[in-house]
Amino acid sequence: MLQFIRGAVGTWVVKILFAVLIASFAIWGIGDIFRSHGPTTTVAEIGPIKIPASELEHEFQQQMDRLRRMFGGQFDMEQAKRFGLVDQTVGEIVQRSLLDLAAKDAGLMVGDDLVRQRIHQLPGFRNEQGQFDSERLLRALSANGLSEGTFGEMIREETGRQLVSNAVTAGAFAPGPLVEILYRYHQERRVAETLTLANAAMPDPGAADDAALTRIYEDKITRFTAPEYRALTVGTVTLDALAKTVDVSEDELKTAYDARADEFQLPERRSFQQVLVDSEEKARKIAEAARAAHNDLTAAAKTEGASVGELGPASETEVPEIGVSIFALEPNIIPDPFKSDLGWHVVKVTKIEPARVRKLDEVHADVESQVRKDRAADAMPTLINSIEDALAGGATLEEAAAKFKFTLTKLDMVDATGAKPDGSRVAESPDLVHTLQTAFELAQGAHSPVTEGADNGAFVVRVDGITPSHPRPLAEVRDQVTDVWKAEQQAKAAVAKAEDIENRLKAGEAIDTVAKATGAVLATTPPITRDSGQDAKLPADIVKALFALTPGGETKGATPDGQVVVKLKDILPADPKAADAPLNTVRDTALKGISGDLMDEFGDALRLQYPVRVNRERIQSMFSSN
Question: How far apart are CA 224 and CA 473, in angstroms?
Fold first, then answer.
């Protein structure tokens, strides 16, 4: 393995590595790679590596934050435990540590040039023009308390892990017979006739008595419980607002302009006439006729029944098929025709705009805006510290806002998702989810720290009032409880009718006759595979049952709003020998699974070499106390 890894550095393995790593940073940003290493109780040992509780806690919180963003803030510790998020986080740390040890055993050395190249490719450190910006890197490192050397080591370690993974899976392949079996299984299609019953189409069950409504109310009390609401005051500091307060001198603009001179280069641009024909013979006739008519391409084209196009001004890269040829021509002459993938071209350059550098007065607004933003980004940490100091010294949010010129917004009675009691929602903002999450962890009257927000801004939130969650009285929600009772009765009626329909079909009654007699909606599905049942709006369990039937067989089940009875009409086998069979897609999927199995086996082998010991009691106490 060592020989393979060493041979891979600088080749296709590294290119794949870059693609995978850059994609991960593009999705999650750079914050996840900055983690604390404070000295705390060990929660796991992987061979000689000891994992402190602070690392587990930090990475678990990162996972929580991601899931809260996915679920709109509605994700708490108990849900995380039920989803096994703690064990998942421990497993990821263990796997990463095992790969670090494997890389060390293999003598893998990731050079400084590769680390530097990797850092320069990270999207988080690129400016608006897509170029690496060292100032952005330094600001990020400073904000997270990291040195360039520490950050470089993090990238070095991650690169080593990926190289080890690539070495393990490099020889994986999917055998042809396996691919064909998988293709037949996944691409087999089936056609079914369906009889659909909507719950809402069932007869009105009439009025419910008080006992039935009370049972519904008590059994489903959470549906009739008002969430906790909070009244909040939110202070927002934005980079744009701070930038407007920055004074910029002309000397600073000139310095910034000079530093960005390469961005303001305008390439040479040309305007030209063009005749495009399909044969060399016709093109040469047009060129010769144009030369004879004092380079009049329009008149010459007419004699051959061709048209002249007026193109440009364009740079060489804006006309990629013919740019090299056009930018080698003299103006106002007719050269010999030339050929491209589009056909034969006869061209006359009519105007040349020389390459030049845009002057400062042409880009003044752009340069000034960028300087203001850069200055504001530099000033933001100082402003945040000043606001924090003022609040710590006893100033109110209102006093701090007046002094430091930031915006205050009042939110009256909102729940943790931003909904108001009347069902409307507060205005969306980039920091809304984070702000609400922070606010619902505070006590009444308390304010949060000044917290980094979106787009290099910050926010602070204060809890002005709390209305606890409480069950709404039955009298207040009686109509809602009645609707739930009616829906239950109609759903029961739909189930009973679906059973009757299935029995009649099994008895041999024609499906269209049953549809007319029961009022069910008759339809025929398109050919569906095991993986495309949603196209026919069939639930997954129905699709699974459908693929276990023989033609003419029936099954039934629930839909989101009713019942459906399904009768298998036809089976369309998949032929892996067909010319258009997408075997490559199946092969790629199989290869990913095989590669995953190889990594699992490799991980098991590493565990034999480096025993893994997890302190379950310590981990349980950590998260139960939270």
Answer: 8
DSSP class of residue 361? Answer: G
**In the numeric block, which tokens belong to residue 26?**
């593009």
Both tokens assigned to 439: 């606010």
Determine the 3-state secondary structure of 334 from DSSP.
Answer: coil
**Paired residues of 207 in beta bridges:** none
Is the CA virtual torsion 314, 317, 320, 323 positive or negative?
Answer: positive
- Are 165 and 7 in contact by the 8 Å Cβ rule? The answer is no
Name residue 410's beta-bridge partners. Answer: 233
* pLDDT computed for residue 476 by the predictor: 93
> β-strand 42-46 against 49-52: which pairing, if any?
antiparallel
Of 42, 228, 301, 174, the C-alpha closest to 587 is 174
Measure Cα distances from 600 to 47, 375, 606, 622 in Å: 18, 50, 10, 28
Q: Which two tokens stand for residue 177?
A: 């017979």
Cα(571)–Cα(549) distance, integer angstroms: 10
The DSSP string of 407-441 is: EEEEEEEE-TTSB-TTS-BPPP-TTHHHHHHHHTT
Q: Using an 8 Å Cβ cutoff, are 249 and 422 in contact?
A: no
Tokens 């199946």, residue located? 586
Q: pTM surpassing 0.90?
A: no
Q: Choose among 372, 357, 377, 373: nearest CA to 260.
A: 357
What CA–CA distance (Å, rounded) separates 223 from 273?
Answer: 72
Place of tokens 């369906």: 194
- pLDDT value at residue 134: 75
Q: Which residues of the chain have pLDDT under 50?
A: 1-40, 626
* Per-residue tokens: 575: 């032929």
Question: 259-293 as b/e, with b when 16 or more CB fall inside 10 Å?
Answer: ebeebbeeeebbebbbbbbeeeebbebbbebbeee
Q: How far is the C-alpha of 390 from the C-alpha of 512, rounded, in Å?
A: 77
| Alpha-carbon gap, residue 524 to 544, rounded angstroms | 17
- Looking at residue 551, its amino acid is P
- Strand 407-414 and strand 338-340: pairing? unpaired
Residue 22, Cα to own-chain centre: how many angstroms?
A: 13
Domains of the chain: 2-173+592-624 (1.10.4030.10), 189-224+477-572 (no CATH), 228-244+374-468 (3.10.50), 268-354 (3.10.50.40)
N- to C-terminal Cα distance for the chain?
A: 44
Report residue 55 as tokens: 């690392």
